[in-house]
Amino acid sequence: MAFMFNLGNLIKSYKRLPFCGSSCRTSNTYRFIFEHGKKFSDNLSFFNQKRNFVHPSKPHFIPSTLVSELNENSNAKIKPISDHLRKHAKPISDEAFGYYLAGLIEANGRISNDKLKLTFDEKDHSLAYFIKKRVGYGKVISDDSVTYLLEHPQGLKAMLTLTNGKFLTSNFIDQLLNNEYDQKYEVSILPPADFNIQQNHFLAGFCDLAGYFSIIISDDTSDLEVKLCFLIRTNLPQQKDPTIFQKVQSEFGGSIYLDDETGIYHYEASSFQTNLKTVAYFDQFHLNSTRFVDYFKWRKAYRVIQRGEHHNQKGLAKLTKLKGSMVHKYESSV
């Protein structure tokens, strides 16, 4: 009877959780299992087993594995943040811009024998031109997307000088070495760095191409719940290295997932504790793409919740409007 009782609680808990178009609901279900797991099962290897999740818009199942979860108090109360966000500022110094550019490149950079290519969203022309101006070389190509193309030798050397020692994985470093950039530009290419991801612009650069901010409102009017999700995901092969996601998780909390079909990792977090750390970081190190607009709206949603306005129809209307106006809609593959 005890087993049936706890299984029933698990099912009820799952039904009360909002579907977020991602694995946020799953993450919270795992958290419930962790809290009640001793009664349900003594086998904690459950957390490393594969689970099949289904998106309502997709009729087939796509397997995804919960790789790592940093447990937090899901019942913790929201802590207040300032109503004011300081004036937007780009990374100006060589040190700051170098970390930011390294983050962009780690998210979506391609290097070949004589060129660097960065691909942006079609709405992010201004960011591509900012990179061009700051590096001093290159060109911006507009098509279905926006591409920054750097081919000038002096520009490639400037890029290498700015970012050397600021990459967290060996993905781009290997590309540089395979194309003999160390010999061409007489620069000793440094190995992957190990720094606190909260203390520089690297994550801002990475998330300008791979970050998502989601406002989740449950459909269950009898047990309404609102959550804010911060997600990091790309579909690029270089994200088969979990290092960056592990860095984020160690400082922010949250969960890391592995797409079993592509072998690509992604990161998701939705607790108020993680939300607070996310705000603290992006308030200091600003995004520079249209994702800054999404973050600004997501931050406004946090303030609506901290004032308790989500408990009335007017507040819910505000949240629904903010959610609908997001530039980048995150569509989960699981």
TrEMBL record:
Can you give the residue ranges of the Homing endonuclease LAGLIDADG domain? 203-302
Q: Name one GO molecular function term.
A: endonuclease activity
Provide the Gene Ontology terms for cellular component.
mitochondrion
Query: Superkingdom, according to UniProt?
Result: Eukaryota
> What SUPFAM superfamilies is this protein classified in?
Homing endonucleases
Record-linked Pfam families:
LAGLIDADG_1
Which InterPro entries does UniProt cross-reference here? Answer: Homing_endonucl, LAGLIDADG_dom, LAGLIDADG_Endonuclease
Database matches in PANTHER family: INTRON-ENCODED DNA ENDONUCLEASE AI5 BETA, INTRON-ENCODED ENDONUCLEASE AI3-RELATED
Please state what the protein is called. Answer: Homing endonuclease LAGLIDADG domain-containing protein
Source organism of the structure: Rhizophagus irregularis (strain DAOM 197198w)
Q: What is the lineage of its organism?
A: Eukaryota, Fungi, Fungi incertae sedis, Mucoromycota, Glomeromycotina
